[in-house]
Automatic annotation (TrEMBL):
Record keywords, A-Z: Cell inner membrane, Cell membrane, Cell shape, Membrane, Transmembrane, Transmembrane helix
Assigned protein family: Belongs to the MreD family.
Membrane spanning residue stretches: 57-89, 101-122, 134-152
Protein name: Rod shape-determining protein MreD
PANTHER family from the UniProt entry: ROD SHAPE-DETERMINING PROTEIN MRED
Pfam families found in the cross-reference section: MreD
Function in brief: Involved in formation of the rod shape of the cell. May also contribute to regulation of formation of penicillin-binding proteins.
Cell membrane in keyword set: yes
Name of the coding gene: mreD
Source superkingdom: Bacteria
Membrane topology: Multi-pass membrane protein
UniProt key word Transmembrane: yes
Species assigned in the record: Shewanella oneidensis (strain ATCC 700550 / JCM 31522 / CIP 106686 / LMG 19005 / NCIMB 14063 / MR-1)
Amino acid sequence: MSLQAANGRIVVWLTLFVGLLSQIMPLPTIVEAWRPDWLLMILIYWSIALPHRYNILTAWVMGLALDILLGATLGVRSLAMSLVIYIAILHCQRLRNFPKWQQSLVVMLLIAIYHLIVYWVEFVMDGATFHAELFLPALSGLVFWPWIFWILRRIRRHYKVR
């Protein structure tokens, strides 16, 4: 492995680490329900950009780390992230060619699927109750996706991540 390839991988893992920290960073109560799924959007970007390198296993590991950090039932977010990233990778060629507004809609749908899977598993295991707030992160993901895409693409090109 060349030094440049190693640096590219470090850069990707650093972006994933920043996404993980952004997921657990405290926010004011008023905006907590609107918290975008930073980690999931970063995972979606890398799985679309480099599906052969950042895939379901990466999503599973990051979901497990998020479960541990949130103190949630172990494996719930791993399962949800893995399924969402599977869907993203399955359609990565199409997603790459969509205009940004269509990509944003697809990402919103993927985030909604993620939250529905998490809700469903928590409902089955703990009897969680359904709230309409469940979809607010998907709406904020719709707004933030073009910015996430732009930032990560610039990082990818600057550090020549392949």
